[in-house]
Design a protein that fits this description.
Elements lengths: L14 E6 L6 E5 H9 L8 E8 L7 E9 L3 H17 L1 H7 L22 E8 L6 E5 L15 E2 L5 E5 L9 E4 H8 L21 H9 L15 E10 L14 E4 L2 E8 L13 E5 L1 E4 L17
Parallel strand pairs: 8-9
Antiparallel strand pairs: 1-5, 1-13, 2-12, 3-11, 3-13, 4-10, 4-12, 5-6, 7-8
């Protein structure tokens, strides 16, 4: 007789209520691994691709509000840029990590920052306390003793000039202590400079050859059908969700599609129903649900580090 399999209790909180920390901006960044750590009190590393979906609940508004949801692109070059940066960090810190051994910080992680400009307003996680009497449910922000997601010089290295350098998905600054943009650095490793030839074709003056056709055959498609010298912006619009509190019953809030967020970076931007930029009120409740999986209860495949990047 087959042994009956014991049902396993799900021990991961994957639905996360997040709110904007500021009421003076209209863009909010949610770092999925950071929020999961706050909710579940165990480490979730950043260099993974987290699958999630999101919806807007109470928005404390009588008008329709639209929320744009952005993540890093799932394109191959984003993946390879992350893997190259991870490889550089692991190679550069190999001896230091070996010397520290068990004395390394327990929750140290390789972190690529997204902390400036529109990405600098971080989502707060909220939980609730039922009243001991009455029917109130009092919300409170879930706090941390330390977070590695709100600084720029995290997972920092020293360059040849002795300057401290971190990693970022935003603007690069290599003029002194600063940050490497992981996409610019990956592009430098595979720069393409196509050869061009202004001649119409071989023996064009000796044979009765259609020079225009020859030029077309030789030159049209000789260059890459994309910008070989620069990557596009790595952030893409993945979905748009809206809610209209003015409708009877407060309108209807629906889940977004399920999306993949490289590095767990999710950016939410608020707009009016006319498309104008508006600020968060600080009272909007967003539910961010991470897909169930085998990595500590969530679906988050890891990025593998590229080896031998620095020739070590």
């Amino acid at each position: 007789m087959a042994r009956r399999k014991t049902a396993r209790i799900d021990d991961t909180q994957r639905t996360l209520e997040v709110r904007s920390a500021s009421a003076t901006v209209g863009t909010m960044t949610a770092h999925v691994p950071h929020l999961l750590m706050l909710a579940n009190r165990r480490q979730y590393t950043q260099a993974r691709a987290y699958d999630f979906r999101i919806k807007a609940g109470l928005i404390d508004s009588n008008a329709e509000v639209i929320y744009e949801v952005f993540t890093l692109s799932n394109a191959w070059w984003v993946k390879r840029s992350i893997e190259m940066a991870k490889g550089v960090w692991l190679e550069s810190t190999k001896e230091e990590r070996a010397l520290l051994g068990k004395n390394a910080a327990t929750y140290n992680d390789f972190i690529i920052s997204a902390t400036t400009g529109a990405a600098g307003n971080f989502a707060n996680l909220h939980s609730y306390i039922p009243a001991s009497s009455g029917d109130d449910m009092t919300q409170s922000e879930v706090t941390a003793d330390e977070t590695l997601y709100e600084g720029t010089l995290v997972s920092d290295l020293s360059d040849d000039a002795g300057d401290t350098m971190g990693f970022t998905v935003l603007g690069e600054d290599v003029t002194g202590p600063g940050v490497f943009n992981i996409f610019d650095q990956y592009l430098l490793s595979r720069r393409i400079t196509p050869d061009t030839d202004s001649r119409a074709g071989p023996y064009a003056d000796l044979l009765e050859i259609d020079e225009d056709a020859m030029a077309s055959l030789q030159q049209d498609g000789d260059l890459t059908p994309w910008d070989a010298d620069a990557f596009p912006s790595p952030f893409v619009l993945q979905d748009v969700i809206s809610i209209d509190q003015a409708l009877p019953g407060g309108g209807q809030s629906i889940w977004s599609k399920t999306m993949t967020a490289p590095l767990g970076i999710v950016i939410v931007k608020a707009r009016s129903n006319a498309g104008a930029e508006v600020n968060f009120t600080g009272n909007e409740k967003f539910l961010l649900e991470v897909k169930k999986g085998t990595y500590k209860g969530v679906h988050a495949p890891a990025y593998k580090a590229l080896n031998g990047v620095l020739g070590k």
